[in-house]
Amino acid sequence: MDWKRLVRFVLLGSSDLEQYAILLVRVSLGLFFAISGANKLFVGSSRLSMYETLVRAEVPFPHLMTYFVSAVEFVAGCLLIVGFLSSLACVALLVDMLVAILTTRLSGMPKGIPPLNWVDDLLYFPEVLYVLFFIWLICSGPGKFSVDYWLAGKL
To answer: Most CB contacts within 10 A, which of 17, 30, 32, 104?
Structure first.
């Protein structure tokens, strides 16, 4: 066994595997948001739940925003799955998650807790993790296994 190579892998990871990690994260996020958006668009109970959430959060035009946010999640999720206009899709979903954090999540956080506990609670929300993934995908690009990569090669 090559110990030096193993130590380098443990310390630095493997750039040979990076494209597979990007693919896994991009497709997983895309599937999650495409399915979530489709449920909110096409399943009455999910749409109603989304509408009620927006009403409680006092989001303007909750009926219109229910369809708009659901369509953004569905379309951007589908784009991420195939890796087409990936950065644009990530920006749209990143904004969607930031609005979700600001309108529904922060208002539900306990008041008067120590700052470290507040940060801990904030980082526990899945929306924060999605934001971090979207930032990473915007910076890293959609990877070699994407329509964007193929199109960029044609240019």
So the answer is: 30
